[in-house]
Design a protein that fits this description.
Two copies of one chain form a homodimer. Chain A has 344 residues and is an alpha/beta fold. In chain A, 42% of the residues lie in helices and 16% in strands. Chain A contains twelve helices and twelve strands. Chain A has a six-stranded parallel beta sheet, sandwiched between helices. In chain A, helix 11 links the parallel strand 8 (251-253) and strand 9 (279-283). Chain A is elongated. At the A-B interface, helix 4, helix 5, strand 2, helix 6 and helix 11 of A face helix 4, helix 5, strand 2, helix 6 and helix 11 of B. Chain A binds a DNA duplex (30 and 30 nucleotides) through helix 2 and helix 4.
Chain lengths: 344, 344
DNA sequence: ACGTTCTTCTAGACCGTTCTAGTCCGATAC
DNA sequence: GTATCGGACTAGAACGGTCTAGAAGAACGT
């Protein structure tokens, strides 16, 4: 707790060197775990570090070397899926000497770019971007300067790695399940963002998987994509739109859990029961979906595992790997009581 | 997007100074917005900064001055209440030139102390700690060295500010509501942590409020405090304990929403209906509690507002305030259908 | 004309670390 | 005996900013 010289000054590497009777250069070599130091000198310096309770100043190390800091960009901290991811990241990084810091990036590409710049200005050694809304060319430009892994966006990419769930397969799991229950009028609610009509984004992959699965079941004629926002409010609006229709779907693939929750609320308000009138399936398998009162059928994409994997790839890249890697994790369907056979 | 000199080198304050035809000292004065610069010089330097797309390196600034970085310590990122708080913090800080970074501190005092040190090592200008498990003496020691605000812990304190909900009043709102419905056997589930049996912690304030309200209603004989962990699993265990009793409470103050959700799940598994057999009230009014299928009665402590307030106090403290301030925010009760009149 | 004061500007030390370009010394080769 | 080599160690520059101390020049009073 001290880490202070008598004058109230912070203990520096010079204090350590003086205490061990060596040069600051040697103390620095030991601190970095570099080669070219005798066992005896190493022992003396390490002893001095513990004696003085020395902690190196990351900011100063960053001036020439590394800061041992990893930045994690998230858009909306409140999205419970991010929590799972971040836990995975933190778990993998623990004990490596690096520290993860989470930067709230906001919802827009511009605000996220600002946060990414803020991370660069702080000399962070590597970046993990979770579901960024930034355009591909900008991502490549940033990744050319700093090791980077993007989660929730599909590859390929030149300068960075990606970790994503197999979104097409996830949608197919939902459609197969619903068709198996006897549904034919199955709608899909997507996240619509004019800024990023990009086939590397999960919402579009999920749409592709949905359309493909409908075709496979011979339900081309029932394909119905509703463009909304994946949020509670977006779900409410989608529910209102469905309620207003003459011919309603009997089942809805909500695209995401948050959207599904809004949908459940909106349908209930419109007097449409779930799963009675309309079955609803979500995506992310957040803790809320498992509550018995909610019991939402949802695709699990093992966020914890994705976070671990992303951190692993990043550390690897910081260690010098250049070739980019693109991982897909396999989803599975948690079947609960928000989906059932259609009534008619 | 460039921020690069022709050699691929980063643009520095020296490049700016050369481009504007002034000394680096003058450029630095302009950058810091300091006094003693003529309007003409200021204009020229600012022009040079935009011409070159200059962005100062926060790490380098931190060596002598400030890093314009604020650290926010959280224990469990998945707790949805933190999301509200963090949004409030981010909102208040936006546009001030400071950037917030969130450090996952983990559940134990030791892991949180490590993260706090990591923030200190990165020369962060101020710290916001959310519900830390660190002991009071350690908090004072840290706050003596860096501006600090603690959220979710009651004052007074010597060197730091606190922002907390009025937890005693919150508990009283719940008890008053339940007694008003006709309940008498009302139990309270607290968070039990041997490390911090400290009357500045919310769980203990809520207990005091609960006991006091029960007394006020002449229900001293029914006071019943169950020591558990405020988590989904803790709620499950509390439910199992209640189910096993011969004489069960007719209503439970779960202490926190996460705990309430575990309780609802556990009671349902034990065949006890809510609110039929047992009414349940939560605390935090998280988004999940408002879902119609959940509909949990819960105390709202306006986390967004608390976050804004904390950031406000911190900026003030960074600007030089020394006297410590201790704010309490007023809670209100969101009444929903998880609480109703007892059956017998 | 001269001293004083005020404003504006700048040279250069400084922050705590890393890294480059050495020095020193003992061992080995001829 | 001298040249060469390699391992252990170190002086001091460098990183990109801030900050101190002082210089230069303008404005003012006498």
């Amino acid at each position: 707790m001290t880490t202070k010289a008598s004058g109230g000054r912070r203990i520096t590497i010079r204090d350590v060197a003086a205490h061990a009777g060596v040069s600051t250069s040697s103390a620095s070599l030991v601190l970095r775990g570099a080669a070219g130091v005798s066992a005896e000198t190493r022992r003396r310096v390490e002893q001095a570090m513990t004696d003085l309770d020395y902690r190196p100043l990351a900011a100063a190390r960053g001036m020439r070397g590394k800061t041992f800091t990893i930045g994690v960009l998230v858009s909306d901290i409140r999205n419970p899926f991010f929590g799972l991811l971040l836990d995975g990241v933190a778990e993998r990084i623990a004990g490596t000497g690096y520290e993860p810091f989470i930067g709230p990036g906001g919802a827009t590409a511009a605000s996220q770019m600002r946060m990414i710049q803020a991370m660069r200005d702080r000399q962070m050694d590597g970046l993990i971007l979770i579901g960024p809304h930034v355009a591909a060319t900008e991502l490549e430009a940033i990744a050319a300067e700093v090791p980077m892994v993007v989660v929730g966006r599909h590859g390929p990419a030149e300068n960075f790695d990606t970790v994503a769930g197999d979104d097409e397969q996830g949608s197919q799991l939902i459609v197969d399940h619903l068709v198996g229950l006897g549904h034919r009028r199955i709608s899909y609610v997507t996240h619509w963002d004019p800024e990023s009509a990009d086939d590397r984004r999960p919402e579009n992959r999920r749409e592709q998987g949905y359309v493909e699965a409908m075709r496979r079941h011979g339900l081309d004629g029932f394909v119905d994509v509703v463009r909304e926002e994946w949020s509670h409010d977006g779900g409410l609006r989608a529910a209102a739109a469905f309620a207003a229709r003459a011919k309603r779907p009997t089942a809805v693939h909500a695209g995401a859990d948050v959207s599904a929750f809004g949908l459940l609320t909106g349908l209930a308000e419109a007097g449409l029961s779930t799963p009675g009138a309309i079955s609803v399936a979500g995506y992310d398998n957040t803790a809320t979906s498992a509550l018995p009162r909610v019991s939402l059928t949802s695709v699990d994409q093992s966020g914890h595992e994705m976070g671990r994997l992303a951190a692993d790839l990043l550390l690897d890249r910081i260690d010098g790997r250049r070739r980019s890697v693109h991982e897909l994790t396999a989803p599975w369907l948690a079947v609960r009581s928000s989906t059932a056979a259609p009534e008619d």
